[in-house]
Here is the input.
Amino acid sequence: MDENTKSDYAKQMLTYIMKHCLWQFHSRTWDRERQNREILTKTTELLCGLEETAVPEDRLDRCYWVDAVLLARNYRRLFPWLGELDNLEITELMQLVRERLDFQTITGSLNVELTDHQY
Amino acid sequence: MPYHEFEVSKCIPERKKHAVVKGPGETLTEALPAGYLNTIPGSVSERGCAYCGAKHVIGQPMKDVIHLSHGPVGCTYDTWQTKRYLSDNDNFQLKYTFASDMKEKHVVFGAEKMLKQNILEAFKAFPDIKRMSIYQTCASALIGDDINAVAQEVMEEMPEVDIFVCNSPGFRGPSQSGGHHTICIAWMKDKVGTVEPEITSDYVINYVGEYNIQGDQEVMQDFFKRMGIQILSTFTGNGSYDDLRGMHRAHLNVLECARSSEYLCNELRVKYGIPRLDIDGFGFGPLSDSLRKVGLFFGIEERAEEIIAEETARWKPELDWYRERLMGKKVCLWPGGSKLWHWAKVIQEEMGVKVVSVYTKFGHQGDMEKGIARADEDTLAIDDPNELETLEAMYKLKPDVIFTGKRPGEYAKKIRVPYLNAHGYHNGPYKGYEGWVRFARDIYNAIYSPVHQLALVDISKDEIATDKSFTTRRMLSDARLPEGVRNAPGLRQYTGKFDVMPGLRNKTKADYPYMQDKPTKLADAA
Here is the structure.
């Protein structure tokens, strides 16, 4: 996968998140960091072949997993090119998605409430 | 920053930061208006106050409660339930509103004695109601009445009653959103954990940020019960005071309106480790994914799939009938807060309309992030607009319909733009599959109303057709459709009932075979 293709794929995947998901827009920086990290890590694992039957025991973990399962399913449905990538390529692609998502929702965000110390 | 400056607001230069148009290739890091700031003097805002946000929006949908405002009678009158927050106890909270009726003499001499007398009178007048919420107003806050002390005194004298005090006077925050915040934190601090609820299922949720507008909560409750899920409490539409005191025992918080009540979910997560799952109850696709997610969480996804298949088969042909006729119609999506992002994408995807502008009266930048992300490029996004700005926007964008509140809705009609009530709805509920079709029907009826078409004619200069005696919506909507679409087999107009609520409320235990009488697993294992 060349860099242009990787960038284009990441753009499509990020656009899906921004248009259809809500989990990336929690109200504080620490929540967004945790949400993005947990959900995209689990999504990557699922896209790399982890079975959906591996349900996390801890209920907080399971909540991230739920969003990850739906995201992975929708990615597979919408982006058939995912089936042509190996696990290393998927991992690198998802890392790029994560970097861009973190930038849009956290580090580059113009939302001044993200740094409030209380809810 | 791609700010949009309104001609009418050039005399208020601070307003420029409150509107943006996201251009091609731009992201939220380049296009986000200011938000949740004090309204700029001179800008005639459409916002409500923090007292209104606490009482009218959040507190008062609780159904088995005397809601008493400690302040002038006007404060309570203006927040009397006009927003169609139904309840299944004969709408007690809609029928009655209570005020201590503060006057000038109370401002001078204090109003605590009078408040206590009012509390006792209210409980005496409604002996079946044992719960009360008291809302501070600007007047009672400024004179320093200690409402909590009065409430405590009454609870000591009447141990059978429980009183919640919400100290959110109108000036506590830039808008009603300040009141949402205050009441959420106060409820969490004062009431959550003070009742141990009865757990009857292995699958237990709090349904948070849902206000039962025209029955929305009862529609969603039906889905959850069909999945065998116990709704421990709903915050707060059709919600019960004591159920909400037991929120700490839920396994999952299912959050609908994050704007008004994410604070509560965040605190429940921190204090009790209850996860927060944000969902969309509007639209076939988002609702289906939401039910799937809740099902997945509990390991009962197949039950969600049963509902999705049944409801989609029943209602999709009707949604598509309207979609064909709404295709390309321009919409201004101008609600209060959360519908900005709940609807921005899905009405375009599922109804075929084009959102040309989004605004929020009291939303924060986080709401605009969601709304702008979900809307298309070139959508005009406005924070806390004033009347002149919205008029200018309508003249410029020429929407076919706007979704907003009553106040801007009325002046939209004056310039011949039809509106739908995005807050209280026209013919809701709008949640659920059938509800989404009802929303599509309302949009169709608004856009193609023959009366509205007549309003577009200027008899001083337009030619008046004399060869037509009448028109119908169908004649107007179908004129541009190809024959194959006009009579497409399988598509049909809405065939549901005028009022869907009796059908939901008359269901019996037999309609919910998955519901349990008691849990079979340990609560913490769920």
